[in-house]
Amino acid sequence: MSWKTAIQLRDLDRQDRLELICRKCGHLRYLTAKELLAHKGAAQLYLDEIESRARCTQRGCKGLMRLSMPAQGETSGFVGGIS
Ligand SMILES: [Zn+2]
């Protein structure tokens, strides 16, 4: 059980970025929720399902991908809280 099994694609903001890293060759790519939602039926998918369906786009690799969400530093509420 993890956050990936609890969050559906439709729960994300359309501009949220997801990071996909190939487990085989290390190729990294970013996808926004908006891009993923362009696939038919994708809104109902949990993030772990998206991860298990994703394949590396590098020529000849087609490795499995690991999905993560990059930290969103700009929205931190702790700026300037400690003196
Ligand atoms: Zn790869």
Describe the structure concisely for a colleague.
It is built from three helices and three strands, in the order H-E-E-H-H-E.
What does this molecule look like?
The protein is an alpha+beta fold and 83 residues long. The protein has one domain (3-70). 19% of the residues lie in helices and 18% in strands. The N and C termini lie far apart (38 Å). The mean pLDDT is 87.
Spatially, the strands of the biggest sheet line up as 2-1-3
Give me the Rg, rounded: 15 Å
Mean pLDDT: 87
Class by SSE composition: alpha+beta
Q: What gap, in angstroms, lies between the N and C termini?
A: 38 Å
Order of helices and strands: HEEHHE
Number of domains: 1
Roughly what fraction of the amino acids lie in strands? Answer: 15-25%
Bound molecules: zinc ion
Portion of residues in helices?
A: 10-25%
Q: Number of DSSP helices?
A: 3
Shape: globular
Instruction: Kindly state the number of beta strands.
Output: 3
List keywords for this structure.
alpha+beta, globular, three-stranded antiparallel β-sheet, 3 helices, 83 residues, 3 strands, binds zinc ion
Which helices and strands occur, and which strands form pairs?
Elements: H1 3-6, E1 17-22, E2 28-32, H2 33-37, H3 47-53, E3 65-68
Antiparallel strand pairs: 1-2, 1-3
This protein binds zinc ion.
